[in-house]
């Protein structure tokens, strides 16, 4: 699959410049919860951290965060803003175009009916003001009931079918972005990092390929209570649960999580209505019990 992560050379160079000129660290968030963005401010402080949204043609492509920057005066904040945008705007726009192309390739491989799917980057991204004004219409599509778990594990013999079902489940739950775990794992170091990605779907193809640290990170996230607007994790495997249990290096408690939230793709109805009914029956909370 085409690599769609941000060019690390740009990031390393920029981090070095910010550190040498201003004595500060720099964090890059390519994807983030849009509710964190201040609608009427070009840059803003959140606590002691300085946030610089990166926009191209009115579309938010990411945010640069300078931790502990409350001691920088207005002139230095303006300088660091100009430096960040000079480097990141072209780099993130290139990443955005590559992500769009990669998503379209994956959809094509899955032979998915695209009329029911909003592909990241398929249309001009809305501005933050538009998102905030129309959030109830654009960000709250799909099922209204709350998920029982933030994990759904897909067990199916054909990887392309598993991915097709993952995309359909993502669409049905009304989440704002579908992102492969491998594309963003470099910026996920804790459960909090996952949670603050917002109401998105993170797809882990071949759960058995996760290394020990990635398994620990996933279990940390799944072991905590999360709100409905935090990420849904969809894992998949062509191996059944018994085969996964025999896989060396795969944590038994992760297999337990997968077994509790297992969706048997080869036995499921693959129509949109059929998948919706399965979701409601097995993976959604009953409003009467909440």
CATH superfamily of the largest domain: P-loop containing nucleotide triphosphate hydrolases
Instruction: Please tell me the CATH architecture of the largest domain by its name.
Output: 3-Layer(aba) Sandwich
Distance between the termini: 42 Å
Question: Oligomeric form of this entry?
Answer: single chain
In the CATH scheme, the class of the largest domain would be Alpha Beta
- Please give the largest β-sheet: 5 strands, parallel
Number of domains: 2
DSSP helix fraction? 40-55%
Helix vs. strand class: alpha/beta
Strand portion, in percent?
5-15%
Q: Give the count of helical stretches.
A: 11
Q: Give the strand order, joined by hyphens, for the main sheet.
A: 6-7-8-5-9
Helix-strand pattern = HEEEEHHHEHEHHEHEHHEH
Q: What can you tell me about this protein's structure?
A:
- By secondary structure, this protein is α/β, with parallel strands linked by helices.
- It has two domains: 102 residues, Beta-Lactamase, CATH 3.30.450.40; 150 residues, Rossmann fold.
- The protein has eleven helices and nine strands.
- The strands form two sheets. It has a five-stranded parallel sheet with strand order 6-7-8-5-9.
- α1 runs antiparallel to α2 and α5 packs across α11.
TL;DR of this structure?
The chain has 11 helices and 9 strands. It has 290 residues and is an alpha/beta fold.
SSE order and pairing:
Elements: H1 8-22, E1 27-29, E2 44-46, E3 49-56, E4 59-66, H2 74-110, H3 128-133, H4 135-138, E5 151-155, H5 159-172, E6 178-180, H6 181-184, H7 191-195, E7 201-204, H8 212-222, E8 232-237, H9 241-245, H10 252-260, E9 262-264, H11 272-283
Parallel strand pairs: 5-8, 5-9, 6-7, 7-8
Antiparallel strand pairs: 1-4, 2-3, 3-4
Helix pairs in contact: 1-2, 5-11
